[in-house]
Amino acid sequence: MKRFTSISLALVLALSVGLAGCGKPDAAGAGGQQGSGQAKEKVLTIARSGDILGFDVHNHGFTSTESVHVNMFNYLVKRDREGKFQPDLAVSWENVNPTTWRFKLRPGVKFQNGDPFTAADVKFSLERVAQDAKLVENGNYKQIKEVKVVDDLTADVITHEAEPVLLSRLSRLGSSMLPSKYIQEKGWDEFLKKPVGTGPYKFSEWIRDDRVVLVKNDDYFGEKGKWDKLVFRSIPEEATRVSELLTDGVDIAVQIPPTDMKRINNVNSTQTISGPTTRVMLLSLRTTSGPTADPRVREAIDLAINKKAIIDSLFEGDGKETLTPIIPGIFGAKPDLFGKSNYNPERAKQLLKEAGLESGLTISFTGSVGKSLKDKETSELIAAMLEEVGIKVKMEILEPSKFNEKRNAGTTGDMFLVAYSNSMFDAALLYKRLKPDTGYNNPEVMKLLSDAEKNMNAQEREKQFQQVQDILAKDRPQIPLLQLGANYGINKRIEFTPRIDEITYADEIILK
Hints:
CATH class of the largest domain: Alpha Beta
Strand content: 15-25%
Radius of gyration: 23 Å
């Protein structure tokens, strides 16, 4: 398996072109063409580690759910593989003044129920996510003050203050366009049961914890879908995903364990593909109550963890130690915090003694299984490392949906493990969950983040984010562990090139 290292975003995206598999098409199995003659149906089946959270595009924040949504819905703006902004539902845009962006909308677009897409839908969609504080993505869109409808095909997005990354916000999860007329007439509950978007594929069925099925939208405004049907299967167990791939049950399997890569590559019909990601695995620690409120305990936890051992034993060397969640290639990165670890178990024991805890302490630790690659095993290995320095761990391992519920409700243990990706390619995104997840409220940090959010001077803004990282590296409300790569198993009947943002656009996957 090719060793993954962190490189700049532009280079990563350019290099990813050569990663696709090769082989002869096969009419049997999950993918390819089913049926006979002219009636053959092209079906793409993808095995994922968990189910979607639902069809509320503003209320999830998870790449795995967005990978289904992007095939049904559209943004105003999208990013290509080189990270450049491209038209989607907006054909052009301009920054009229620091707080006003004008978008010209694509004419002739219809939602999948036949309703026309207009500026009224832009207003409805963006004002909903910007104004409803209960929505998960509200923190990434509350910068929007209002949307003014200039005419049916022109919308002005007005922000409270200068907004340097509005295009980035409008090209990622949380900014999909919703059908205002349909929702206002039928109600939100009906939309969630029968979701409607403008994308190349439309909803067919959702069997919870089993599969989501989409079918081609023949009225799509752009190039028609390459597949007749998309099937997103929920298979939490790694071994079962691999087995389904090897027995022709699925075309793509995500989160392939490094230990299974060789076995997949030794089968004539399958192969593995690895690609870089923006995802960083880290620990979030409660800073307002419990034992982790003591900064000495947080430091001891950090020093007790051998990150290299985690990378070598669980990921076969594919990963990169880090003291920051902002990796090189993301705006605001501080490279001298990347590729490093603070591992020092003897100092960890000394810190606990200084805190009067030399006789030991117990912390509660919430982990997940199937939410990210080797998350359960990583949690268990960390727990063992903490035990070695005298920290007893009360472990709770949850399925992704239960984990998400507890995290969003703020009822996780003293510490939890999570793997953050950065769909905005900007440091601002990752810090939106800092206070909700940890309770951390350092006034200096909060001011730096607030100032950076509205600073139109890129150089100053970058320095503000770097200052934040220096402070957080000492305060440790989060303990970054490692940058993750992504391993996929694919059937050789398809061509598939992973994206660094880990989003699955079905029409970027080709049946050969």
